[in-house]
Specification:
259 residues; alpha/beta; TIM Barrel; 8-stranded parallel β-barrel; 8 strands; 41% helix; binds 1,3-dihydroxyacetonephosphate
């Protein structure tokens, strides 16, 4: 359906010490090096403090790095924050608007949009997370929520070529039970593409990679990737296990026929 890049992204969240991160990244690299799956960009998103050591560790590999968040300003009196400038040169990707930040840290629509713009201005590729809560879904508001998150998240982006969207329904994250592929495809092929075409145009909308996230593991990933409107996975828990994550990368290539 599209020429969007295929992605397998591991979001380690607030897990791993620096030493554990280095061991996990080395293990993933080793497992993918023997017989590298073609056509899939592997991305690891460790905690901030592990970005520099992993950048050195992975510099000759095909594995890219991503941050889990950023501050919209380039510098200043923002104690404890990390700016886009600091990430430049250390990673190519940055997760923006993850539901844990939207709901636990109370990040609003507007600040997510500012962060997306700051990332793109710094030459980083934002992975913009969108997704409804269970109560929003029960109220029949899933599509409207996702479309509003896209509209506000992309409000400062004239050229979305270097943007990735991740559909992560909040109710499927860490739940052990993912959304069904049909429910996901309804949003990724429906509301998300429609809103992207609305904001830009049809051809542009087809070129933007849309990932699924929420309890993805090697057993269920293929069913999601068989949906033409899904170009990869954003993996939480299973990405902390090198064998499982490497398997997900391989299954991504297999499902899309790029290997
Ligand atoms: P789980 O895969 O642990 O459900 O996490 C999904 C997620 O939030 C990835 O960003």
């Amino acid at each position: 359906m599209s020429a969007a890049t295929l992605l397998a992204v591991g979001n380690w969240k607030m897990n791993t010490t620096v030493q554990e991160a280095m061991a996990l990244a080395s293990d993933v690299r080793r497992r993918l090096e023997d017989d590298p799956p073609g056509g899939v960009q592997t991305v690891l998103c460790p905690p901030f403090i592990s970005l520099a050591p992993l950048h050195d560790l992975l510099k000759d590999s095909n594995i890219a790095l991503g941050a889990q968040n950023l501050h919209p300003q380039t510098s200043g009196a923002f104690t404890g924050e990390i700016s886009p400038t600091m990430l430049q040169g250390l990673c190519r990707y940055v997760i923006v608007g993850h539901s844990e930040r939207r709901h636990i840290m109370r990040e609003g629509y507007h600040v997510v949009g500012q962060k997306v713009k700051a990332a793109v201005d710094a030459g980083l590729t934002p992975i913009i997370c969108v997704g409804e809560t269970l109560s929003q879904r029960r109220q029949g508001a899933a599509e409207a929520v996702v479309r509003r998150q896209l509209e506000t998240g992309l409000s400062g982006i004239a050229d979305p070529r270097h943007v990735v969207i991740a559909y992560e329904p909040v109710w499927a994250i860490g739940a052990g039970v993912p959304a069904t592929p049909v429910v996901v495809a309804d949003i990724t092929g429906g509301a998300i593409r429609t809103e992207l075409a609305n904001l830009y145009d049809d051809a542009t909308a087809q070129k933007i990679a849309v990932l699924y996230g929420g309890s993805v593991n090697p057993e269920n990933v293929t069913a999601f990737l068989e949906q033409p409107s899904i170009q990869g996975a954003l993996v939480g828990g299973a990405s902390l296990d090198a064998a499982q994550f490497a398997q997900i990368v391989r299954l991504t290539a297999e499902a899309k026929g790029t290997d």
